[in-house]
Amino acid sequence: MLKFLEFRSSLVLVVGATAMFAAAAPSFAQQEPPRAPEERGLPPNFDKMSPEEQARYREMIRRRGEGRREGEPTEEDRRAREAERMRREQGDRARGDQDDRRDPRTEKERMRAEMNRSTQVEAPADRSAVEATFTIGGERREIHAGTFYDAFVLLKKFEEKPGMPVTRERVFEHLLAIAEAEALGFSCTEAEFLEDDALAKNDALKKVAEEGWARQNTTWDDYKRYEIERRTAQKIRDFYMNTLRLDTQNVFDLYKRDHFRYRLEYVAFSAKETAAEMMKAPPAEADLRRFWNDDKGVQNLFRNPTTVDAEFVYFDQSGSNDGGAAGPDVDASVGYDEALAYYRRNSFRLDNLLTPEQRAETIPGPNRTIAEIKTPFQLLKPVIEAEIRASGRVRVAFNEAKTAPKSDLKALADKYKLSYVKFEKADRQAFMTEPRFGFQIFPVLYASDPGKLAPDLGVERTTQYFWRLNAKDTSTLPTFEGVKDKLPPLYYEAEANLRAAEAAKACRAAIDAATEADLKSEIETKNAEADRNAEREATARNVTDGKLLDEIKARHRQIAAQQLMRTRNLAAGRVFSDAVKKLGLEVKVTGFFELAAPRFDRTAMTPEESLVFFLRSQAAIRTLEPGSVSQPLNDPSTKTHVIYKIAERAEPDFASISESDYIQMRATAERDLSYRTSTKFMFHEISQRLQLNQMK
Amino acid sequence: MKRTVIAAVFAVFAAAPEVAVAQGQESVERLWIDLQECLPKRVTGVGRKGINDAPGAATPADWSKTVERMGLVMGRSQGTPVEPYATFYFASFLFNSGEVDAAQALFEALKTQFPAHPLCTAKLAQNGGTMVDQAVEDCKREKAFLERYPRKPTQEPVLNDKRKVVLSFDVGDVEIRFYDNVAPKTVAQFVKHVKEGLYDGTIVGRVEADALLQLGGKETEKGRIVPSDASKGTPPPIPLEINRAAPKLGTVLMMRNLGQPESHGVLFEITLMDYAAKAYQQTVFGEVTKGLDILQAVSRRPRDNFEYPATTVRLKSARVVDG
Questions:
Q1: Residue B118 pLDDT more than 90?
Q2: Looking at residue A599, what is its pLDDT?
Q3: Which residues pair with B168 in a beta bridge?
Q4: In chain B, which residues have their Cβ closer than 8 Å to the Cβ of A234?
Q5: Are A659 and B182 a contacting pair at CB < 8 A?
Q6: Does A242 contact B92 at a Cβ distance shorter than 8 Å?
Q7: Fewer beta carbons within 10 Å, N or C terminal of chain A?
């Protein structure tokens, strides 16, 4: 069995498992074993009672069901509704009716069906008509409509899965891979299939599979044909993947990409130094007032936040309160159908509650037979029952609170065995520490008026709750006078940063101006050439309309500007030093370095080291040519604006690559190469490689 | 060992008539099946699959290990239709394991022995030529590059049998030995920490059933990885020492600082399967030589929200045993 699992592709597992499920279990719900009386909400000796006693109990339970929860349907209602749903669904299916307004399917079912909507390929009227052509080994070949349709039907039978419909592209992938395999002499014989196929070698397994296939109009011959074709295509895939040859040159190229060594010249504009300069004189009050009035961020720093007094009543499935224990008036045993319906409604949330170990129980494995596989519903049933009970209690408590808005919520929580918590003068920060109520609570709670009860029950991952807002203090902004003494440090920081940024921008503008001056004649020549080209085009096309002429001219100017871009970049590098020095600034130089990954924590470095590390971590350096100049950059860590020029770029020495780096690079290069090879048989690649030409 | 196999295979290849005894005894079907079982990389599944769905494509292979197995299939396939394919595979594996001369000789022999075979005639290679022509060209290019930039072959990791570390968990003892020859700095740092008692009282961290255990962290660090940083008082990170050992059942790996070309230096992991995602990304520096079953049992325990074992498993003490 283990060998079978290892050797066969997942497909066989899917085919086998699907067949067995199809044969043995039309639905998971029907797979449930007969339930004990307790599970059905009946006394343990129910099965031993006389029919009259049983009828009496059933009547009693029905009555409890009618009265136990406001708005909740009775067991009978539920059954009738479910039956109606099934009838409608079957009717819709029969009619092909997909009207969303009456679609009884769950969201999950609808999405799955949507994903499954495969490209339909109609049976061709003329099987010999050409569907597409392709070239292999210099020879043009045809794919006929009949071949294409047969392949589509075959793939649909064995490959279509939820979320993975068989498309036209997939059919071409299949046919082209087989063609390429055959061109290289690969094939799979029937004897090879019989020697290796798990179903062919195991009569019992084959019988189960065939029973399942019988419902889908699929035969053993279909399976054999599919497997032979699949194995042929698999051979060529494996051949390409396992005969890829990784050159050492590839490894070196990859290493070079990450290990070029750079030396930079740069000019720095330190906001800290600017701030130190500014601090020599106190700021004018007018400047501080403007700063206070304009900067909302600073205002928010001093703002007194909104606080609320609120009470919460809740049950927490994961908490210490009793979760699903019994309580007054609202408790009854949870029926199987009710639990299943609840699971279906909440499956998206509930499935997330499965632990990895439980999740493992839902899929086949080497130590788990198919009979041992459990459904998420089976595993989550205790949770579901507890949630239904507790959710009933919190709903009843909420309804009771609505009838008496000023009632004592603590007493109410005690009455229904729910949890209770009270917040006083709590701001948003306080609620952050209570994630059980979720973050969407803020807009509702903070926008409510004091005395208001929650508009609806809140539902979080494991919590259901409601609240009452008792008091609210809205946020207030202090006056300028109240905070002006605390503003100067912030003012210096913000203003210095602004000035440093402006200085960097001015420096870059000076470099650009010097570049323009340096390239003046070249730019003029290029623009004149562009204008001449525009005129030639206008004459050739006989264009006289002014607007159109302008458009042509603009287009040619744009082409010229693009051609000049590289020249400009390099010219900026030539004038960099002189332009910076003209502004009275210092050009600093780094040593040779390799690019490094950014580090958030650079506190252990000196400001100078930190700034150089910031430069080292600029990925853009890799894309710039030596001699290019960067735009101004801001390093928030050192509060410095900086412009750099790539002074030099040096290749690493291949002999100096350490063994560790070499092995790592080789593995990375092999991964890259493997990945590229693994995509060779995807539609976009194989169709290009074999020059596929579709007739439609 | 490898050289011997290559020599034997060449002998078989050269003396085709003598090995014709194999003909009639080996079924072509069986040979194809065995050949495919030798392949280290499989593109699993069909259709539009990404790299995550094709683990075979993502995992760097240990080509040298596959040479031997494919060599045997090639020997058995003499005189059958499988022979040219097995030879081509074998030569490609040789190329990737660094035996470029031998690979080229085999590719050229293919051209001589099977001039009419599609591998030698069908022009389907990337360079527009045949598969064999492209392979020969690759060999020539590789040899030219290696002549210009010679490199010593990379070292095979060897376990040091003179030193071990015993990790005493509250569920039992686990013994580790080290690849000193390929990860000397990592081993030295680990042993130093053990001697200083840094790991005593630490707990088993995140676990993946039958796949992975993370160790070396303290209870107070639960659910997060404290970056190693000398300036913060935690032991400093150490350079990566990637070597040819790939993560498999029972290998010990040093964790890597996120996004940095360095090892954490303290936190380490033990893999319980072929862990492709970590291959050649982290330093593999040792192997569990005793107590693997204990670790496997711990990895299967129910987990809490941080994916730690729900019941804390503690490393009571760790000690170095020399000799």
A1: yes
A2: 74
A3: B173, B317
A4: 43
A5: yes
A6: yes
A7: C
